[in-house]
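Protein modeling request. Please complete all fields; requests missing the sequence field cannot be processed.
Requester role: graduate student
Desired output: 3D structure, token encoding
Chains: 1
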Amino acid sequence: MADVVRTRARFLTSVLALTSCLVAGAISAPSASAQSPDDPAVIARSIFLPMEVEGTVQQIDPVEHRVVRTIDGLGSNPFVLQELPDHSKIYASRLFSLEATLPVIDKRSGRVIKNIPTVGAPYTDMRTTADGSELYLSTTASVVQVVDTKTDTIARTLPIVLPPAPGHIEVSPDNKTLYVLSEAGVLTRYDAHTGALIGQPLLLGDTQTGWGALNRAGDTMYVRTLSGVRIVDLRSFAVVRTIDIGLLAAPFVFTLTPDERQLWVCNFGDNTISIIDTASARIVHTIAMPDGMPASVGFSPDGSKAYVSNLGPTSNFHYVPAIPKLAAQLANNGPGSLDIYDTKTLQRVDQIPVGRTPLFGIYPSA
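Delivered output (366 residues):
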């Protein structure tokens, strides 16, 4: 009998020990959410946002609901990020900066691998060619510099005379034409290889036209104005529609959805997002941001999620023109967030805290 009792006791002790090990293992074992930020799956689903005030880029994993990596070494005022089509490298332009260099980030390692010297500071906008072999960069010296993305060196420099101070650029799908917008209300075409002016400039009839979006076919451009959006038919090189959002709304930046059926417009003046149906050229929805100013928007590849850079509570005031309001926010520079919206319900489904002044980023590739 004593042997039986001892045997049972040893058995129970073994069971308890095994259970403890299993529980401890379950607690300490790494889960899928603990993947390294340089894991290809994590990189593919991550959002990369520049923190203009902090001089960093933050990698946000929406599955982990947090910033998983902060990339420094960029210098001052990172503003717009542009990646190569193969997702290998990220380039960062600047805003209100005197640093005449273009930082290059290796996306996998999260390190700045080069600072390319430029003529004037990289200013606001960049575009790659369809094959990713070249990157076009506007600078404060009123030139567009073309970067060979294989060597990360300047291949050529294109002077931009009309309009001076390019604020937004686009490259045609065939890589032959460079479109240049300025805040003065002018759209100009240049030969993307020689820099020669093509035809006459198009006067857009408004100001603050320093942001645009080109459709994939390359025949339609959407241009921001002081109070709305103008649609330019690039075949006839003429404005064909004007969409009024409102002077107090102060539209600033916008992005086409992946299917190009909608244009989401971030309005700095009243902290809203106007959703425009591109077929009818009408505003079909308006999203009111409850706690901050929408600074940019991007989408998941399937278009089901919208990722909005929210400048946070310090930007939660209304009816100030877009550029002065952005300048005021850069001075206040409180913490922001990445807000995730369901594009069908138009409801915010997540809000992830990030650094100060999150701006124009890179969005999930898978």
